[in-house]
Amino acid sequence: MLSLVAASCGSVTDVLDEPGWTIAPAFSTLSVADLRPAGEWDAIDLLWYENGETSVVSSQGTMCGAAVSPAACDEALADIASFGRFGPSCLPADCGSLLVLNRADEIVVARNAGSLREVLGPIDTATEALFLLSAAGYRWSGRALENGAIRPTPDGWQFVGRITVADCDPFVVEAHRVAVGTDGSIRVEAREEISRDNSCA
């Protein structure tokens, strides 16, 4: 199970001049081809749901293409977006991501950090780390190191990004530097408040 454990305070970005950092790609540009899920799967889709509409962000293989009973497989896919999704809140819109895996007639849907951890197994690519971070509520721009950066470490990955810690009166956003373990754990190494106002999401 993914854990989020607060650690010491300090400057979030003071390590960005060290070697190894790259700009974290925007979540919408990530490819499921860079995932290494546990087990063998015929197809993997990353879906985006927003206000009743579902679109494919990235795919590998043909969903239900190897099904013994294609009709039953398609039926299992019919309403998957209605039962929970992962990613930072986008209130007042209703939105989020789903990772869908298919093997023969089996459909598995990862809707949160826990189910992502189960289907991904060891977190051994940067893309897998970013999927978990999105499920934990982190955001990043994909444009600048200080707004979203990632680098490998001996134990997994290190990440700099932003997270909303309070969403109504006050609305508070913090910058965090976190360590993502290969076991899927997330540990906050440094945090600082970057904005606060009296609005609500």
What would you say this structure looks like, in words?
The chain is mainly beta and 201 residues long. The chain has one domain. The protein has helices at residues 70-77, 113-120, 126-135; strands spanning 4-5, 22-23, 43-50, 53-60, 95-103, 106-110, 138-139, 149-153, 156-167, 171-181, 186-197. Strands 1, 2, 7, 8, 9, 10 and 11 form a 7-stranded mixed β-sheet that branches. Strand 8 and strand 9 (156-167) form a beta hairpin. The protein is globular and about 55 Å long. 32% of the residues are buried. Mean pLDDT is 90; it is low at 1-8.
What's a concise summary of this model?
The chain has three helices and eleven strands; from the N terminus they run E-E-E-E-H-E-E-H-H-E-E-E-E-E.
Distance between the termini: 28 Å
Oligomeric assembly? single chain
Strand pairing plus helix content: what structural class?
A: mainly beta
Number of strands: 11
Taking all residues together, what is the mean pLDDT?
A: 90
Integer count of domains: 1
Strand content: 35-45%
Structural key phrases:
11 strands; disordered N terminus; seven-stranded mixed β-sheet; 3 helices; four-stranded antiparallel β-sheet; mainly beta; 201 residues; single chain; 13% helix
Outline the secondary-structure elements.
Layout: E1 4-5, E2 22-23, E3 43-50, E4 53-60, H1 70-77, E5 95-103, E6 106-110, H2 113-120, H3 126-135, E7 138-139, E8 149-153, E9 156-167, E10 171-181, E11 186-197
Parallel strand pairs: 1-11
Antiparallel strand pairs: 2-8, 3-4, 3-5, 5-6, 7-9, 8-9, 9-10, 10-11
